[in-house]
Amino acid sequence: MTKALSGRQAQAARNDEVILAAARAVFVADPGAPIAAVAERAGVGISALYRRYASKEELLRKLCSDGLDRYIAESEKALSDDRDPWVAFKAYLRALVDADTNSLTQRLAGTFTPTPELFEAAGRASELDRAVFARTKEYFRPGIVVEDFAVILEQITSIKLGDETRTRQLRHRYLTLMLEAMHRAGEEPGGELPGPPPSMAELTDRWRA
User: Fold this and answer.
1) How many CA atoms lie within 13 A of 24 on its CB side?
2) How far apart are CA 16 and CA 117, in angstroms?
3) Global pTM exceeds 0.70
4) Whole-angstrom Cα distance, residue 16 to residue 62?
């Protein structure tokens, strides 16, 4: 049984959630924003923020770590889904779109120095990507590779129109179109995808500070 937090511990945990939510909103909008902007959005003093996170880089690493943890959890859930592989894959991509972890990839890549733990988590995420792809590969049109998914998700999560409800609606609208385009049944006779797929080097080079 999980031990209940004391009043002070519970308040600290709530404050941390508020700080992280504020940091995500601030840095996804502008990775160059000062850490003071996070404190202002969170409604906490800058000294309180620094007691929890000693630097902007530490805060960015925490955001990235949380995003990777969520991505890994959704990937493991997809692999344990015993439904038809294509049905499970569609549910997996929808969950990733709602988790919005790729917004962090787009905006924070190259803005801080990753730790060995982050590289290890990224490696685990990559392994799971390949396992999900292998399980679903027979459903894809020729030419699609596992690295395509990262860019597709970035394209979908770059959509930000209206309020949160409208943004989610539009993201799922275009995800549905993407899924139809990826499925083998949607392939046009003799059609080839333009340009080569993204390489792993292209995807990882963005994380160089």
Assistant:
1) 19
2) 21
3) yes
4) 11
pLDDT on residue 6: 63
Q: Please give the backbone phi and psi of residue 183, each rounded to the nearest 5 degrees, phi first.
A: -70, 140
pLDDT of residue 159: 86
Residues 13, 65 share a domain: no
Question: What residue numbers bound the domain in which 178 lies?
Answer: 57-205
At 30, list the tokens: 């502008």
**Which of 39-48, 56-65, 177-186 shows the lowest mean pLDDT across its residues?**
177-186
- Given a contact cutoff of 8 angstroms between Cβ atoms, the answer to whether 76 and 128 are in contact is yes
Task: Give the CATH number of the domain where residue 90 resides.
Answer: 1.10.357.10
List, for residues 179-209, the tens digit of each pLDDT value: 989 998 865 555 566 667 778 887 788 777 6
